[in-house]
Amino acid sequence: MKTKNKEMFMEYLDELYPNAICELNYNYDYELLIAVILSAQCTDKRVNLVTKELFSKYTLQEISNLDIKVLENIIRPVGTFTRKAAYVKNVAISLLENYQGKVPNNRSYLESLPGVGHKTCNVVLSNLYNEPCFAVDTHVSRVSKRLGYANETDSVETIELKLTKLFPKEKWSRMHHQMVLFGRYHCKSIRPLCSDCKLKEECKFYQKK
C-alpha cells in the first residue's frame, strides 16, 4: 500500500471521527470487560441497554453470587445468553479472587478468562491502560479488505498483523476506534455511503460496483 494512500486514510478518519471513543458505556474497569464479552455478535447499542440494567442493579460481588438464571434473563437480548451468562459470572468470580475485583494490565491472565479472546483483550487493554493495540472486529475487517489493506481470505489475526505493520504504533488504538465507527456508520456492510466517501477511488468494493 502506498504511503500516500495510508496518509489519506488516516487524515480522512481524523476528519470524520476526531474524537473517536469506545461506544460501550461503563463506569468501572470490570464493566468494560463484561460489556466487551457481551458484545460478541451483538451491537453496542443493545449491549448498553443490557448493561444499564445489570450494572445499576448489581455490583461485581453481587454478580459473582447471582443466580445464573437471573443473569441469563437480564442479558437475554444480547444473544447466546446462556454461554455469556456463564462467562460473566466466572469472570466476576476470578477477578474478585485474583485481583480484588480489578481488571489487571495482564494479557496472559485476561486471555485465560472464559469468553475473553485476543480481540476482547485488545479492546480492554487499549481503553483501560492505553496499551498500543489494534483490535480487529467485523467493521475493521470489512474496511481493511475493501481498501486493500488485507485480502478477502485473511484471518482476523492476519489482518491485525498487516495493520500493525502498515500504521504507526502510536496510532493503533485511535485507528481501531475510528475504523469501527467508519465501518459502522459510513462503510457499512449493506448500503455503504460510497458516493460521499473520499476513499472510493481507492476502494476495491467501489471499483467492483
Would you give an account of this structure?
The chain starts with a helix and ends with a helix. The chain is built from twelve helices and no strands. The model has no long low-confidence stretch (mean pLDDT 94). Helix 1 crosses helix 11, helix 2 runs antiparallel to helix 6 (81-99) and helix 5 (68-75) packs across helix 6. By secondary structure, the chain is mainly α. It is 61% helix and 0% strand. The longest helix is centred in the middle third of the chain and has 19 residues, at 81-99.
Would you summarize the structure shown here?
Helix content is about 60%, strand content about 0%. It is mainly alpha-helical and about 210 residues long.
What global shape is seen?
Answer: elongated
Helix content: 55-70%
Distance between the termini: 21 Å
Rg estimate, integer Å: 18 Å
Q: Keywords, please?
A:
12 helices; 209 residues; elongated
SSE topology sketch:
Layout: H1 3-16, H2 29-38, H3 44-57, H4 60-65, H5 68-75, H6 81-99, H7 107-112, H8 118-129, H9 138-146, H10 156-166, H11 172-185, H12 204-208
